[in-house]
Amino acid sequence: MYFYRGEMCPSYIEPQNLTSVSEFFLMGLSDDPELQPLLFGLFLSMYLVTVLGNLLIILAVSSDSHLHIPMYFLLSNLSLADIGFTSTTVPKMIMDIQTQSRVISYVGCLTQMSFFMLFGCLDSLLLAVMAYDRFVAICHPLHYLIIMNPRLCGLLVLASFLISLLVSQMHNSIVLQLTYFKDVEISHFFCDPSQLLNLACSDTFINNIVMYFVGAISGFLPISGIFFSYYKIVSSILRVPSTGGRYKAFSTCGSHLSVVCLFYGTGLGVYLSSAVSLSPRKDAVASVVYTVVTPMLNPFIYSLRNRDIKRAMWRLFSKTI
Questions:
Q1: What secondary structure letter does DSSP report for 200?
Q2: Per-position DSSP letters for 244-292, written without gaps between them
Q3: For residues 23-45, b (16+ Cβ closer than 10 Å) or e, as one string?
Q4: Which end of the chain is more exposed for a tag (fewer CB within 10 A), N or C?
């Protein structure tokens, strides 16, 4: 990998103008020295809340035999993916704030990008699998445990992980094909794949096609599956004669629907804001919402809206005390 010492990407670059790239510089969220202690405390506390909240979900589900059903098995895997998703970016950002260093090695950047895509795609696919689980539970309640048997649940989670791994490696292969960059400063607080492509001087036409294909796998297909599942769910609920029956049926997927709206709503908001905004730093700040805030809020959404999780957590606390 090479860095071109110039402002534009010319059609031909003299070898003496190329410098080997061994590291990148992350722009971060702010250059204000007075804000650094505040940012450090804020993101450290948010990260600890995220990890502890999702760990509580996993421990509550694993320790309570009443929660050993497909819905909560998938929820515990989503919590695990959320921990991985946040741990990919936030600890590095906290360390950079503390050490006042924004350097990340080339290998470290590729590794961070790979895990970011892995857990981000896994989050998206697990939400689609959970939507299918709610569809089976509401539209085929008598056959729910037969259809959503442990073997199928395990295969769906495994398939989600393998597809996510494929997506992350495809992103890695795209970046590895880039020969030189016009800059080594990434306008973000982590190694965002789109930012690296924007810095590339190589012909990115084929790479962009692959990126759109990967985006279709990790974004369009899960969203389509979620929309189809909820279309069937709403159609089934509307056929229930009593208002109480409708509310009871819809309340079983209220938490999942809240998480879906939060995950995709914030992601879409960041994408639209980046398309309109001309400030890279504002885009980085907006990205905090779906990379940090969303994984932190998921445990609260499921614990506050779900009586079974509340009971399991209370039993877990009682055993611990």
A1: B
A2: HHHHHHHHTTHHHHHHHHHHHHHHHHHHHHHHH---HHHHHHHHHIIII
A3: ebebbbbbeeeeebeebbeebbe
A4: C
Contact between residue 25 and residue 184 where contact means Cβ atoms under 8 Å apart: yes
This prediction has a pTM of 0.87
- Helix 205-215 with 150-176: angle, nearest 10 deg: 170
Task: List CB contacts of 134: < 8 A, sequence separation 6 or more.
Answer: 71, 229, 233, 252, 253, 256
Structure token digits, residue 97: 């704030």
Q: Are 53 and 45 in contact (CB under 8 A)?
A: no
The distance of Cα 211 from the centroid of its chain, to the nearest Å, equals 17
Residues 190-216: tens digit of each pLDDT:
888 777 777 777 666 666 677 777 777
Helices (H), 177-253: 193-199, 205-215, 221-238, 243-251
Work out the angle between the directed axes of helices 150-176 and 70-99 (0-180°, nearest 10).
Answer: 30
Helical H runs in 20-149?
A: 36-63, 70-99, 106-139, 144-147
Asked if residues 57 and 302 have their Cβ atoms less than 8 Å apart, the reply is: yes
Using a 10 angstrom Cβ sphere, with 0-12 exposed, 13-18 middle and 19 or more buried, the burial of residue 240 is middle
pLDDT for position 17: 45
Residues forming beta bridges with residue 242, ordered by sequence position: none
* Alpha-carbon Rg for the chain in angstroms: 22
